[in-house]
Amino acid sequence: MKEVIDFLKLNSFGNLATCDGGEVDNTPMEIVDLGDGGFYFYMQNSSDVAEHLRMNACVSFCATDPEYKFLKLKGKLVLCDDLNKKIALIQKSKFAEKIFDDRQLENMIIYHLSKGIYLLNDIQNGMKKDGVF
């Protein structure tokens, strides 16, 4: 799991796949590790992604580095309405502070991916690791 966390420290932006009714949708997204187990995603409460997640919380997230090493995570997101987590996420995120500030936290929604499966694949070096978290 350390390799997954290390990879995400360097490559926290990727694509989050959700389900919009019967169709797959893909959205650029940042994933944040707060060090408490699992990973977090943030968005505006009124976003299309938030609406998709209200209907179906099963997701897949994929991040890639410049050498095409990639990490794929799959699992079910759980809504997290903890104000302290929102503040910690803004402080740790590379991008959230550009969207949200203390006055806009009521518009921010966060989801926690506490368990799921991962695949870390380095095609150039022939390394492939998978597991559960």
Task: Give an account of the 3D structure.
The protein has one domain (2-132): Pnp Oxidase, Chain A, CATH 2.30.110.10. The chain is built from 4 helices and 9 strands. The radius of gyration is 15 Å and the shape is globular. With 133 residues, it is an alpha+beta fold. Strand 4 and strand 5 form a beta hairpin.
Relevant terms:
133 residues, 4 helices, 9-stranded antiparallel β-sheet, alpha+beta, 9 strands
List the helices and strands and how they pair.
Blueprint: H1 2-10, E1 13-20, E2 23-32, E3 39-44, H2 48-55, E4 58-64, E5 70-76, E6 78-80, H3 83-92, H4 96-99, E7 108-113, E8 116-122, E9 127-132
Antiparallel strand pairs: 1-2, 1-4, 2-3, 3-7, 4-5, 5-8, 6-7, 8-9
Give the overall form: globular
Radius of gyration of CA atoms, rounded to a whole number? 15 Å
Main β-sheet, spatial strand arrangement? 6-7-3-2-1-4-5-8-9
Order of helices and strands: HEEEHEEEHHEEE
| Overall CATH class | Mainly Beta
The overall pLDDT, averaged over residues, is 95
Low-confidence stretches: none
Helical residues, percent: 10-25%
How far apart are the first and last residues' alpha carbons, in Å? 7 Å
Give the total of beta strands: 9
Report the total helices. Answer: 4
Overall structural domain count: 1
In the CATH scheme, what's the topology name? Pnp Oxidase, Chain A
Structural class: alpha+beta
Major β-sheet annotation: 9 strands, antiparallel
The CATH architecture assignment turns out to be Roll
